[in-house]
Amino acid sequence: MSKSTEELVFAPLGGVGEIGMNLGLYGFGPRNRRKWLAVDLGISFASPDIPGIDIIMPDVTFLEREREQGNLVGLVLTHGHEDHVGALVDLWPRLGCPVYTTPFTHGLAEARRLGEPGAPKIPFHIVPSGGRAQIGPFEVEFVPVAHSIPDSHSLAIRTSLGLVVHTGDWKIDPTPVVGNVTDPARFTALGDEGVRAIICDSTNAIREGISPSETDVQHVLAELIAKAPARVAVTTFASNVARIRSIAEAAIRTGREVVLVGRAMERVIGVAREQRLLDGLPAFRPVDAYGFLPRDKVVAILTGSQGEPRAALARIADDDHPEIALSPGDQVIFSSRTIPGNERAVNRIINALVLQGVKVLTDRDALVHVSGHPRRGELEQMYRWLRPQVSVPVHGEPMHLAEHAELARAMGVREVVRLVDGDVVRLISADPTASAEVIEEIPFGRLYKDGHVLVNAADAAVAERRRLSFAGLVSVAVAMTAKGEVVGDPMIDLSGLPQHGVGGKPIDDVIEDAILDCLDGLPKARRRDADAVAESLTRAVRSSVNQAWGKKPLCHVLVITV
Question: Taking the chain, what is the end-to-end CA distance rounded to the nearest angstrom?
């Protein structure tokens, strides 16, 4: 195969057109003989319209096939947020490739793995921040960037055809409290080297200006805690070590003890202390110390900022936590942003706290949170540093991607490629006449974590559960002789149906009448066929309930021959 057919392509299997579930692929070589490098392996959280499902992951069927052919050379993790690494334990066994990342991200991934019974041992290659790894035909440089979790990195990916930059999640913050800064000199040097393409975070592309610094939040939190007359509880993302440090330092300066509440928080703090990111801070108090501390001498740091029903804050709001309670005059600070889709759950908790007499502060009241993603002014600065020939907006919903694309064009980028999950975009080609564009599609989809198993989004159980949640279930059992004669009364069980229909008649009476009328109307030959009887009864029951209620429930009919 001639060298002129070689190309470098990018293909997202998640994270484009949506927030979360990030999985990007880089392919190098001739078409049909590419070597693939995967970047991140994240999750997103299910909405209430998927009953019983909490977590969504990208479908990696394409990568499984490439692995079988020896074409998957590795997986790189840019940082430790769940939307970038949360699917690792569940999906790595399907990939079986080496995993490359930096120390703190490795520590978090290992802590998660050890917390999962039966989780596989994963072959990690730990690369220092700023270091490089040769992974098949790809040389990957981990370029440190500021973000809302320590140890975040962009990736400078080099091949024999040239250099592309995968930004991951980033922002510009010269004073991040904990973690990396985004170094202008390093990105300018990459630009001087010659960047063919940037694959870039779009989350805040609709917001003007420059993000405030984490240090600005630190000052505001210190003031709020110093002025608080009673208990203070601060809820934030468990992974935001800088925010946790700021809260702890403010507590110490005001003579308060820090109590850590929530398993996810404890896990992150354990890794952060191992990595010496919390040096200088005394050990935090365990949750059972809370009740023994004076009200004006405690700050609790809690999980549950997104309204998670099983997290500490939700249980406190419901007055259901075994060790933590709040009283009138206490204060809860939401040092976080509500992720779209979680507004109702968060508002429920806020309202419950207000009814208890607790004062609630959010980012609408004070600068108690800043995003870890770049606003438009920061994006413009990155484009000035890198001067790419091609821009591929990722990590965002359609409105974010569209705004980012317009910004890139305004910054003078010659080729801007809009794509969706499953698109394969050519970034660089050995053929100098080839442009950056979508050249093909690969299979993609979603997997649902259903209890302890993974199911495809098209799985019948998911669709059936959705119908159950809307219209309930009718179960019918009928005993019949071999000659088709009914023995006894039919047994009826209802789940999720109202007791009475429109005319006030009990629904179970409506169903029983429909069953008896249907059986009376069946020809003798059909009554001797159990499957035919079940089919007829199902149609009759659903139709009768629809007339009485206006909805057609699921219906299971069991015909027993006696």
Answer: 71
